[in-house]
């Protein structure tokens, strides 16, 4: 009998429903133990209000529908702030037979209205007295900067670098914590550490910039205590708080018994948040410390301790040159580093190393008989884990620990991400990197069908050739000190992506029903294509930049006539792709693996064959843009391609035998198109949910494995 499991609300995970921001959250569920031929024909949703130990039925709704993901909210009334409800679901099949009820899934809304916030923003202890039994207690808190809170000497929650990175002039994320067990009779004390974080610390290129969103750290917090008589006691951040300079550390700073000292002073209450700043519970999973390593060292008291770290070793020493201005030394609270090796000098006591990462859910895996390819895929996953910290960073080890558009634009097919701080985009217009404003929302829209484009800007025909462009960045043919001088002319690469973005906007405008915009982008695309052909394409199909990137982009972006495509395709036969994939000499995908890479490098040759670090400045060793190869591994090597919503196509690869066997596991409510070789060519079958196996005769008519590309002369 089928079982309904894993009830979820919107994008929240089942265990993370304490901060729901939607008044009518959509509901999704999954199935287990599905019998052959099962098909949901309808569902029944029971909604109840949870009030401490009491449960009150609100509504029970039945609906004839096969939908089981993002099902609209069925109750008549929307939810209110602080409301706690539970949902359970059962479905019926074509025979009218019901499944058992699912387990209850609970959610509690956050503070949905600006008027629910009674606290003030203060620039910086709080000692509420508990004299009655407590049923529940909630702490709502946010900051300009990043914060960590303590109550009675214990850390609140397990979030790291909260509240995360957002566009602070438009949105401020708050967190909700259940602190019921942390309060005790008598006097309690809450303390909050606040640091600059992304709000006003130094971020960016060429030494970076400070005070991007403002010049003052601040936070606001609201503690709501519900007693057994249902009375609510609220304590808010206001002028009654006190602050002290954290460089003069107070060991008892968040304990009620801490006596007043001369270092404490009154906080400064600053202006309220502007009306245009939305207070939201946030999206995505929080950053947590996922691993801890304890290093136990002994030594005399007061000895200086220094921890220096780097991603790689060069001549048996830390290779810190690629980190540029970053000192790569240990720092205290509110910071993170990315390294593979650490050097410890003069240790006097225990040292804890903590691994922090976005608590994202892994949705795919890849395994084959080639251990090096498996390691390549693992490196992609590891690189993403190291870069996903509140937002997808360019690289996590140096001063580029921020979003650069080109990276998520290339890899958006795999992760979910937010858009970057727009400061750099306003300062220096740049093709490909800033095309992320179109490419990233398009990828998200294609995947989730709900994401809208953030920017709808169109250029007139081609890019101004006087503007500097990054182009085919870090082409191995480019000089180490000039990574924009690749075999494909940088200006031409900019033109290619301009046309591609215009074509994407045609699709987006069509999806949104904006026909005037669609016609405008069609006109612009047609003009840009004509000018591109006039400037860069010879009539026989040869492109002025006679390089792989130029031909690959022109083919993928459909910029050539059928005759020209044949000419370009002859220069990019499929053997090139697999030779690149399986080659062990640079440039090839397995070269970094052979050189000991653990995540993905920014350059093909970040480490040279002699073991030395590439002399170029752009040489980080955790830079997941090349992680886009994971899409090729899943779609081309494994043969698993999504055709449309809940439909997949799989084309298997043979293992060298005369028979090929395919085993397919198809998820519920999914149709799978299986294409496999046959004596007459190819055979196609469509199958639904379940386990399927196919066997066919296979005759290889090409070399396998392919020969790797010869090294550059």
TrEMBL record:
<dbReference type="Pfam" id="PF25788">
    <property type="entry name" value="Ig_Rha78A_N"/>
</dbReference>
<dbReference type="InterPro" id="IPR016007">
    <property type="entry name" value="Alpha_rhamnosid"/>
</dbReference>
<dbReference type="InterPro" id="IPR008928">
    <property type="entry name" value="6-hairpin_glycosidase_sf"/>
</dbReference>
<dbReference type="InterPro" id="IPR035396">
    <property type="entry name" value="Bac_rhamnosid6H"/>
</dbReference>
<feature type="domain" description="Bacterial alpha-L-rhamnosidase N-terminal">
    <location>
        <begin position="134"/>
        <end position="250"/>
    </location>
</feature>
<dbReference type="Pfam" id="PF17389">
    <property type="entry name" value="Bac_rhamnosid6H"/>
</dbReference>
<feature type="domain" description="Alpha-L-rhamnosidase six-hairpin glycosidase">
    <location>
        <begin position="362"/>
        <end position="407"/>
    </location>
</feature>
<protein>
    <recommendedName>
        <fullName>alpha-L-rhamnosidase</fullName>
        <ecNumber>3.2.1.40</ecNumber>
    </recommendedName>
</protein>
<feature type="domain" description="Alpha-L-rhamnosidase concanavalin-like">
    <location>
        <begin position="294"/>
        <end position="356"/>
    </location>
</feature>
<dbReference type="GO" id="GO:0005975">
    <property type="term" value="P:carbohydrate metabolic process"/>
</dbReference>
<dbReference type="GO" id="GO:0030596">
    <property type="term" value="F:alpha-L-rhamnosidase activity"/>
</dbReference>
<dbReference type="Pfam" id="PF05592">
    <property type="entry name" value="Bac_rhamnosid"/>
</dbReference>
<dbReference type="InterPro" id="IPR013737">
    <property type="entry name" value="Bac_rhamnosid_N"/>
</dbReference>
<dbReference type="InterPro" id="IPR008902">
    <property type="entry name" value="Rhamnosid_concanavalin"/>
</dbReference>
<dbReference type="Pfam" id="PF08531">
    <property type="entry name" value="Bac_rhamnosid_N"/>
</dbReference>
<feature type="domain" description="Alpha-L-rhamnosidase six-hairpin glycosidase">
    <location>
        <begin position="443"/>
        <end position="576"/>
    </location>
</feature>
<dbReference type="InterPro" id="IPR013783">
    <property type="entry name" value="Ig-like_fold"/>
</dbReference>
<dbReference type="InterPro" id="IPR012341">
    <property type="entry name" value="6hp_glycosidase-like_sf"/>
</dbReference>
